[in-house]
Amino acid sequence: MNLVCLDLEGVLVPEIWIAFAEASGIPALRRTTRDEPDYDKLMAYRLAILKEHKLGLREIQETIRTVDPLPGAKEFLDELRGLSQVIIISDTFEQFAKPLMEKLDRPTIFCNSLVVETDGSISGYKMRVAQSKLSTVKALQSVGMETIAAGDSFNDLGMIQASKAGFLFRTTEQIKKDYPQIPAFEDYGSFLGAIKEALAR
């Protein structure tokens, strides 16, 4: 049985941290997994900035409420869900994802959790499992699923390379250069076409 595994940010919705960087006026928060392969290092960097500026979950959620899916993303996902089971596997957090999932008609998402203090400050985070995207794909394969995976960042490469078919979507020029063997797409039409071909194999 085929199962399509998609990244969330950059593929279906804008990057949340970039949106918050713009809303808060803190350019340093624009750094994402496209720029930093080490997720723990990236999150430590983000949390230090939030602490320095006395910003917490409430302020980020206010920004998230203004974020809509990328143009064409919902239509792409609707059509894809008519062809295959789809799971979104993201390194975002459940406290961030909920309003975005409602705008996408509540697809299944596997993500992580923030540690939030009573004053709303974010003191840490809990990953579901180490190497969460790759580990999830391997677990799905262990129960008989054939996975097709796609994403845009360094932290997607493991699940992409471990799947029977994998794709990059709107990734960076550097990642395309470093991984020329992975087909890369810029628009939902050709992206969907490639997934359809993979599903038929």
CATH homology-level superfamily of the domain at 2-12 and 71-112 and 129-200: HAD superfamily/HAD-like
Radius of gyration: 17 Å
Strand order of the main beta sheet, please?
A: 4-3-2-1-5-6-7
Q: Element order, helices and strands?
A: EHHHHEHEEHEHEHEH
Rounded to the nearest angstrom, the distance between the terminal CA atoms is 11 Å
CATH hierarchy, class of the domain at 2-12 and 71-112 and 129-200: Alpha Beta
Percentage of helical residues?
40-55%
The global form is globular
* CATH architecture type of the domain at 2-12 and 71-112 and 129-200: 3-Layer(aba) Sandwich
Low-confidence parts lasting 5 or more residues at pLDDT below 50?
A: none
Topology, number of strands: 7
Oligomeric state of the chains present here: single chain
Our estimate of the beta-strand percent is 15-25%
User: Which structural class should the secondary elements be placed in?
Assistant: alpha/beta
How many strands, which pairing sense, and closed or not: the largest β-sheet? 7 strands, mixed
